[in-house]
Amino acid sequence: MLPWLQRHWPLALVVVLLLLWSLASQALADALFLPTWVVATQLIVAGSLEAARLQRRAWLDQYLYDDSPWHRWLRGGVMMVLRHELVGALLVLVLLVKLRLLPFVVWPLLLVGAVGLVLARRWLRRRLARHVIDERLPAVTRRLLVPPVAGLLALVLVAAAFWLPQPWLVGLGWEEAIAQHLSGGEGDSLLAFFERLAGSAEITQYWAMQNAVERLGLDAPVALLGWLLLLLTQGAVAWAYVRLLVGVDALRKERPAVTRHRQQESREQSP
Question: I want to staple 222 with a disulfide (CB 3.0 to 4.6 A). Which of 161, 176, 190, 212 is the partner?
Answer without folding.
Answer: 212
